[in-house]
Design goal:
- The complex is a heterodimer of chains A (about 325) and B (about 375).
- By secondary structure, chain A is an alpha/beta fold.
- Chain A is built from eleven helices and 14 strands.
- Chain B folds into two domains: about 60-180, abc type-2 transporter like domain (abc type-2 transporter like fold); about 185-380, no CATH class.
- Chain B has helices at about 10-30, 30-45, 70-80, 95-100, 115-120, 135-155, 185-215, 220-225, 230-260, 270-290, 295-315, 325-330, 335-350, 355-375, and strands spanning about 60-65, 85-90, 105-110, 125-130, 175-180.
- Classes of the chains: A alpha/beta (about 325), B alpha/beta (about 375).
- Chains A and B meet through helix 2 and helix 3 of A and helix 1 and helix 8 of B.
- The complex binds adenosine-5'-triphosphate (ATP) and magnesium ion (MG).
Chain lengths: ~325, ~375
């Protein structure tokens, strides 16, 4: 407990009517860490983040965010957290400068004018500060939103899909900036659907249907899933994939460029399944499973397990 | 653990931040801005026409100095005509005037001393009827019927030995004083009333949309994630529209003066001060709707849900004292009802502070209650 956690919550639960959207999730994020928060659409990522900053009332759960009680002290949390919403939520009929100025006023930022000017310069928008936010392209909106989240110098940033629809160059710049800020001591909780971004995080959590399925570093997550993967090259891979998927022991057969990745969580069964096909013209090779293989595996498993109520036991350490 | 800072205090600086934001957005929203000017002009044109109605049971006071039976006979006849409803008895003319000024009665009927005696002598005694003609629609028909009503009553009474009196053209001398609006010009009543009607409609609507708009555009999530207090948001959203309200008041006053030549007997600065309370009451009502409505459409519907009964029951459409009792009771709850009395009182009757205060506190109370409900209802979370 004495480790310095920016986020340290447990038992977080949110129900909308009958549906449990976030189910008993525990999460610990160390100060200065970039923490990736992954999961398929509708798995409860946004809902969880909203509970952290007091935008949704949790049905159960306890813990601290930046040392403040996550349930009772959301006002104090709000003042030190920057929350970037999944959907652009700044005022489209205000200019870039006006939006930043408004945010700075709401947080009572010292030297407001200077802070706004600095923020605009960092954005590289000095020439367009009078442009209405609504007229910006999607990528620029994202950048404006990030700049606005940073203007009050928060200690923790909750970024909900900050790079959706952003071009690769801007994405790289964005991650560079994130790593630099983390180096300065900021903590990040970032949701994303991009595997390359997930791999750039210090640690990850993966949730599905509101359940935390796994967490840890990239390597830990992959190990944890205990998946065996074979790569196969040759002609007519499409037909081969269809045949392989029928075999017991094969859980995935996914095309990656000119190769097919075939995975299963029972190494012996998988080997038995592919045995009939291990002949010319196919070239087989056992490879390390990737993060994507692991996630797709988790996703499919949790779907299978979901039917009997909440049978998918969250994997806790 | 760090020291606990629970509810941060109301911050005037944050409030100012919200006001600045709302002002900027308002300035950019040309269409709404144009509508806020267009609605008064449109309504002024439309309602420039008189609205006719046939009000009955108008409250009247009587100053009865006569001891004989004939005076009472006439009063019964007036009551039976269903136009007049004698609700009060006064002792002096001043008392009667006061009731008229406050709008408690529509008429004061003055039957002088020795009326019966003079009548029997054939001296043509005078009956004085003073009428609050602010709203000609209310008094016109009743006054028009008066000659026939009184004439008929006397003819019945004078059957037999007194029949000779019927020979004279009219045995009494009926004097009618139409106070406040002697020429009975309907516009004099309607145009000042429009000020209240227009403010009610536009002020409720514009703030009604204020919070639902944030919610629909998704900016609410952002606003809520910042350390703002509900009172800051609500008041910050009200203040800029007060300016719009004053622009409308200005437009209507200028039109009233230049187009409709409405007399302005009272103090205009007083009217402007009172208007502030009324504007605030409507804005507070709108903002409260805004916290209840799920979307902008619902906010609009709620606006009309209040607006229609307001104009129907406030005394704008129909003379207030001519409405059934239940309608009057309901009407008392609307700020518009009280504001109409104030604005007509100040402009047409030259009412001063004491008369105005009587009608002002219900409006102020309404504003306070509405704002409190709004702050209570304002959800600080998304669920
Ligand atoms: N206000 C709400 N009322 C009812 N259900 C809701 C509400 N908000 C979210 N949900 C439901 O909760 C579930 C989780 O939604 P959430 O937005 O948290 O998912 P997510 O992981 O952020 O998905 P995505 O990757 O698509 O952004 C969804 O099934 C959604 O339909
Ligand atoms: Mg989401």
């Amino acid at each position: 407990m004495e480790e310095n956690f920016a986020i340290d919550v447990r038992g977080m639960t949110k129900r909308f009517g009958e549906r449990t959207v976030v189910n008993d999730i525990a999460l610990q994020v160390r100060a200065g860490e970039i923490y990736g928060f992954l999961g398929p659409n509708g798995s409860g990522k946004t809902t969880f983040i909203r509970m952290l900053c007091g935008l949704l009332r949790a049905d159960a759960g306890s813990g601290t965010v930046l040392g403040f009680d996550v349930i009772a002290e959301s006002e104090a949390i709000k003042r030190q957290v920057g929350y970037m919403t999944q959907r652009f939520s700044f005022w489209e009929d205000l200019s870039i400068a006006e939006n930043l100025d408004f945010v700075a006023r709401m947080y009572d930022v010292k030297n407001r004018a200077q802070a706004v000017r600095r923020s605009i310069e960092q954005l590289g928008l000095a020439g367009r500060q009078r442009q209405l936010a609504g007229q910006l392209s999607g990528g620029w909106k994202q950048r404006l939103a990030l700049a606005a989240c940073l203007i009050h110098q928060p200690k923790l940033l909750l970024l909900d899909e900050p790079t959706a629809g952003v071009d690769p160059k801007a994405r790289r710049d964005f991650w560079e900036q994130i790593h630099q800020l983390a180096g300065e001591g900021l903590t990040f909780l970032i949701t994303t659907h991009y595997m390359d971004e997930a791999e750039r995080c210090h640690r990850l959590a993966y949730i599905s249907y509101g359940n935390l399925l796994t967490h840890g570093t990239v390597a830990e997550v992959i190990v944890h899933v205990r998946l065996t993967t074979w790569s196969v090259r040759g002609p007519g891979l499409l037909g081969l994939a269809a045949q392989l998927r029928q075999q017991p022991g094969v859980q995935q057969a996914v095309a990656f460029g000119n190769a097919l990745h075939v995975s299963g969580d029972d190494a012996a069964a998988l080997e038995a399944a592919i045995a009939p096909f291990r002949q010319a013209p196919f070239e087989w090779q056992r490879i390390a499973s990737g993060l994507e293989d692991a996630f797709i595996h988790l996703m499919e498993q949790s779907q299978d397990n979901f039917a009997p109520a909440v049978a998918a036991e969250p994997l806790k350490k | 653990m760090k020291p606990r800072q629970r509810h941060p205090k109301f911050s005037p600086r944050r409030l100012w931040g919200i006001i600045v934001k709302e002002f900027t957005q308002m300035r950019r929203d040309r269409l709404t801005f144009a509508m806020m000017l267009g609605i008064p002009l449109l309504q002024l044109t439309l309602f420039g026409f008189a609205i006719n109605s046939d009000p009955r049971h108008l409250p009247a006071a009587v100053l009865l100095a006569d001891q004989g039976p004939q005076g009472r006979t006439l009063l019964y006849a007036m009551q039976n005509s269903t136009f007049f409803d004698f609700t009060r008895q006064v002792r002096t003319e001043v008392e009667g005037r006061d009731l008229l000024a406050r709008g408690q009665v529509q008429f004061v009927v003055n039957i002088p001393e020795n009326f019966s005696r003079d009548l029997l002598r054939g001296d043509r005694p005078a009956i004085l009827v003073e009428a609050d003609a602010t709203d000609p629609a209310a008094t016109g028909i009743a006054l028009g019927s008066l000659n026939a009503v009184l004439g008929g009553a006397l003819r019945n009474d004078f059957k037999g030995p007194l029949d000779f009196l019927n020979a004279t053209a009219s045995p009494i001398d009926l004097r009618v004083h139409a106070l406040y609006n002697p020429e009975s010009i309907t516009q004099f009543n309607i145009v000042p009333g429009l000020m209240g009607v227009i403010l009610t409609m536009t002020m409720i609507m514009i703030t009604g949309l204020a919070i639902t708009r944030e919610r629909e555009r998704g900016t609410m999530e952002n606003l809520l994630s910042m350390p703002t207090r509900p009172s800051e948001v609500l008041i910050g959203k009200i203040v800029p529209y007060i300016l719009i309200g004053y622009i409308q008041v200005g437009v209507i006053l200028v039109a009233a003066r230049l187009l409709f030549h409405v007399p302005m007997h009272g103090s205009i600065p007083l009217l402007l001060v009172v208007a502030l309370v009324f504007i605030a009451a409507n804005l507070a009502m709108g903002i409260t709707f805004s916290t209840i409505a799920k979307n902008q459409l619902q906010a609009m519907q709620m606006t009309f849900f209040v607006f229609l009964p307001s104009i129907l029951l406030s005394g704008f459409m129909f003379p207030f004292r001519g409405m059934p009792r239940w309608a009057q009771t309901v009407g008392e709850f609307f700020p518009l009802t009280h504001f109409l009395r104030i604005v007509r009182g100040i402009l047409l009757k030259g009412n001063g502070l004491p008369d105005v205060t009587r009608e002002l506190w219900p409006i102020a109370l309404f504003a306070a209650v509405m704002l409190t409900i709004g702050v209570k209802r304002y959800r600080q979370t998304l669920d």
